[in-house]
């Protein structure tokens, strides 16, 4: 027989998935805007941001409600705490996509430099897979999948380092391109942060399922 | 007569204050390291980071314990949720000071440029006051003080914009200084983020005390 709290916990998971879908959409849209040089697509991100912000408040309220009504303990409590944290990370991811839209619009107003766009596109693809994968691991309580997300973060960090190095070398050689190079560096940094937030989610999944805290160098497995 | 939960909530507040003290110390140390060009001081930040990470896990566990044992509702529940969020923000602030130590060490290895250090020092001072003020408003449940923190964030954002502009102008004129300028830009960005986290804390205080959600453009007062 299903407990009342099980239905509420399933609802929380659905809300998180919906919110994650909005974050994925926002990331895909800013990336497409950057690659296709489309200012309108950048502007459209603010509509998605509103949805994410509404999700953010809705999830917090739903968690408060379950905590107050059910007084959950053990695994149920860990799940709700994880939802609160994941909610926070998803909202920050939304902020990062908005930051990308600002830097991206600045970038479109400048003399084009292209060298780093390929790596930025790769970073965005990895970040998108990390968002999707971390939430999938959350909904299915799949610790093995969550551990894979932690490894993907290394790829995105390496690409960020490459964009930084290449852009700075270009800026040294072409002083006219200092601003455009800076825009791309900031975008790479935003994408790296997006990956960090997905990593946080994966760590929360491991905690929710196993009760093990793998943050701050705690070892899993 | 005091309820058992009141003692536990007071303990949570004390833990947050202790953690906030560690964050303030870390910020002061990286700033002093930068201004006095002292690599050892940058390295010493990792000892403080360990304390902050321990605080982070300890506070989460204490919140889980109170939630599981007391099944708190209404204002007590809001306070605990706020502690969970503040805990998160303080930990991220600690990360920002560590990021500053990395960029700062890179910066010390380069030909010195000084132009932006004055503004960076001002940013650090404001960020430090924001950390202290936001936690003070939390412990005292002082909504008026929390609102003042929200205004201080504008000052720090303006200074960040100035550092960005000045550093980029310098980088355009002196291509040898592209890396050093970038280090200072990244440090300014880390300080801006520190201010953002203090703003989050102030918003959490307003929520904990009044039950009003002022995030995402919600109006207070």
Key attributes of the depicted protein:
85% helix, homodimer, 6 helices, elongated, Methane Monooxygenase Hydroxylase, Chain G, domain 1, 221 residues, mainly alpha
Report on the architecture of this protein.
Two copies of one chain form a homodimer. Chain A is 85% helix and 0% strand. Chain A has 221 residues and is mostly helical. Chain A has one domain: Up-down Bundle (Methane Monooxygenase Hydroxylase, Chain G, domain 1), CATH 1.20.58. The longest helix of chain A is centred in the middle third of the chain and has 35 residues, at 74-108. The first copy, chain A, is elongated. The relative contact order of chain A is 0.14. At the A-B interface, helix 2, helix 3, helix 5 and helix 6 of A face helix 2, helix 3, helix 5 and helix 6 of B. Chains A, B: It is found in: Cytoplasm. Chains A, B: It comes from Bdellovibrio bacteriovorus str. Tiberius.
């Amino acid at each position: 027989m299903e407990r009342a709290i099980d239905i509420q916990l399933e609802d929380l998971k659905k809300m998180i998935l919906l919110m994650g879908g909005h974050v994925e959409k926002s990331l895909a849209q800013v990336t497409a805007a950057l690659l296709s040089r489309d200012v309108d697509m950048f502007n459209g991100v603010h509509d998605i941001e509103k949805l994410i912000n509404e999700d953010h408040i809705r999830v917090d309220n739903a968690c408060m409600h379950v905590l107050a009504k059910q007084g959950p303990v053990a695994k149920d409590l860990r799940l709700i705490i994880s939802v609160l944290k994941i909610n926070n990370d998803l909202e920050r991811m939304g902020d990062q996509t908005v930051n990308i839209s600002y830097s991206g619009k600045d970038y479109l107003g400048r003399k084009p430099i292209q060298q780093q766009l390929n790596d930025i596109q790769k970073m965005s693809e990895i970040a998108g897979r990390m968002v999707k994968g971390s939430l999938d691991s959350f909904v299915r309580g799949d610790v093995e999948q969550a551990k894979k997300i932690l490894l993907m973060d290394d790829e995105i960090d390496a690409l960020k380092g490459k964009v930084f190095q290449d852009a700075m070398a270009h800026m040294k050689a072409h002083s006219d391109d200092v601003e455009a190079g800076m825009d791309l560096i900031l975008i790479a940094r935003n994408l790296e942060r997006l990956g960090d937030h997905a990593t946080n989610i994966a760590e929360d999944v491991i905690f929710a399922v196993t009760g093990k805290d793998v943050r701050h160098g705690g070892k899993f497995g």
